[in-house]
Each structure stands twice: as structure tokens, then as C-alpha cells.
Amino acid sequence: MDIGRYKVTGRSPIHLDDFNTHETGSFTSNQDIRKAVEKNVLEMAQWQSKLYAEGKTGLLIIFQAMDAGGKDSAIKHVMSGVNPQGVEVYSFKQPSVEELSHDYMWRSFKALPPRGKIAIFNRSYYEDVLVVKVHKLYEQLNVPDRCKDADTIDKRYKHIRHFEEYLWDNGIITVKFFLHVSKDEQRERFLSRIKEKDKNWKFTKSDLDERSFWNDYQNAYQSAVNATATKISPWYIIPADKKWYSRAVVSQVLLHVLRDIHPQYPRVTQEQRKALSKYKEWLINEPLNKQ
Ligand code: AMP
Ligand code: MG
């Protein structure tokens, strides 16, 4: 699988229309690809264990998508093998009153991964240049006028670029996924959320309202990707009409990222090794506590 074609590093501007939503590479069904995904998930778990033990690098994984784009299921499947101790998932909803009284990055700062851990953002500070741009929500903020002028979104792109560079300089790597779903596929998924009782809870009228802004969102995504994709914090635009394919690509990308970080278990010094064999002797020679 060639993940390079989904990667955007900001070298030249991209058009979302050039990225199709339904391709499945050389695979025709989930059956074809399932084994590969399982293998990826297993190897990811091994790398994560080393990431945690080494404690040098943190990994921030961001998932963005239109509603019903498959963020939840991608997170669930791809992270299924990893040790829960080393991962936190945060879902960013409409900001609370407390969150709105702070700068927009505040809630993300609190959720950043420490070195050695993985944080998954289900939505993120990118909402502050997506939904906030589409509906000009920044105009409603209780802030000085200079903080909500026409340049607000452009300034935020700059903040985000600097923020991700700041993270990089602190040993935190950012990987960003846009699960790229078509408008027709979103309709199908909304319909199944309405038809299937167990999925009803996932559907709200506001999903339909937002759907009517489809083109504005696509433009906002395209601008955000172009303004914030860099070599150190690339975007991956993943074809997401077939969930099984998007999961496979996500797992492949994450595996690639972890291999690149290449964490290792801390080395044991000669002195520590000597001490360990002494402790081993102690334990072996300890009288058994017979009952
Ligand atoms: P869901 O992920 O379906 O539970 O929906 C969460 C909702 O919160 C989405 O409609 C997001 O657009 C919205 N949301 C997330 N972050 C923000 C934000 N900073 N400002 C406004 N709405 C947001
Ligand atoms: Mg929703």
C-alpha cells in the first residue's frame, strides 16, 4: 500500500477534489486486507510498548472528518491492540462556558500526551478553523474587537503551525488524519443511523443542518490542510467511503510513524546487569514459604 499518495506536507497546495473518497487501492474487500491490518495492529502494539518504556517521544494523533466520516470506528479498530495505559482518547465537542473563557488552545494543552504516551484527538483545535470558520463563530466571542477581525482564521492557521512546531521541538510528534468521505456516503450513513435502532443515538438534526454547509466545510478543510500541512506535521487525506480501507490506511500510516520514531527499551548498563543477577540469586535462594 502506497501511503505516500495520501500524505500532504505543504510543498504545494492541494485540491480536495483531486483526492477521491472511494478508492481502495489494489484491494477489493475487507477479506483481502484484514490480515494486513491485524499484523499492523500487532506490530503497533510492540512499538507502543517501547515508546512507553523509553519515555522520550509523545505522539499526538488527530482525527478530523465530516459527520459520519468514521472517526470513532477508525479509533476503535486501529487502537484495539495497544496497551490502554499508554493511550488517552479525547473527544472535543462544542466548547463549554469555561473553555470559551480561555484561549481556544487551552483545552488541547491540557490533553497533550506526555512523552512516552499517545493522545488521540477525536476532533481537535482544527474545529477552531473549520466549524468556527464556516459559521464565523469567532465573531460571537467575548474578546477585544482586534481578536475577532477578518484575519482571525488566518492568524489561527499561523498559531497552529507554530504550535505543532513547538510540540515537535518538545519531542511530541503530530499526525493528522482527514477521513475524506463523499456527500453520498454521508447520506447513506445518516440513513442507517435513522433506520437502525441501535444507531439512533448517533443522529441529531444538527447533523443535517451541517450537511447543508457541505461545500463550505470542504473549502474550510482544503484551506486548513494547505495552511497547516508541513514536513514535521503532515496531513493524511484518507479515502473514507469504505471504512475497512480507511482503517487499513490509518494503521499503515501509524505503523510507519512509529517505525520512524524507532523507540527502544532503555539499555541496561553492565553495572545494572550485575545487580540484576545478584537480585536473581537472592530470589532463587530465598527459602520457600511452605504452608
Ligand atoms: P460529535 O463529534 O458528533 O459528537 O459532535 C461534536 C460537535 O462539536 C461537532 O458538531 C463539532 O463541530 C462541534 N465542535 C467541536 N469543537 C468545536 C469548537 N471549537 N467550536 C464549535 N463547535 C465545536
Ligand atoms: Mg456528530
Question: What report would you give on this structure?
Answer:
By secondary structure, the protein is of the alpha/beta class. Helix content is 46%, strand content 12%. It has helices spanning 30-54, 71-78, 97-100, 106-111, 131-134, 152-169, 183-195, 205-211, 214-228, 243-261, 270-285; strands spanning 7-8, 58-65, 87-91, 118-122, 172-180, 235-239. Helix 2 (71-78) packs across helix 10 (243-261). The model has no long low-confidence stretch (mean pLDDT 96). Adenosine monophosphate binds next to helix 5. Adenosine monophosphate (AMP) binds at residues 67, 92-95, 123, 127-128, 131-132, 137.
What tags apply to this protein structure?
single chain, 291 residues, alpha/beta, six-stranded mixed β-sheet, 12% strand, globular, binds magnesium ion
Secondary structure layout plus pairing:
Layout: E1 7-8, H1 30-54, E2 58-65, H2 71-78, E3 87-91, H3 97-100, H4 106-111, E4 118-122, H5 131-134, H6 152-169, E5 172-180, H7 183-195, H8 205-211, H9 214-228, E6 235-239, H10 243-261, H11 270-285
Parallel strand pairs: 2-4, 2-5, 3-4, 5-6
Antiparallel strand pairs: 1-6
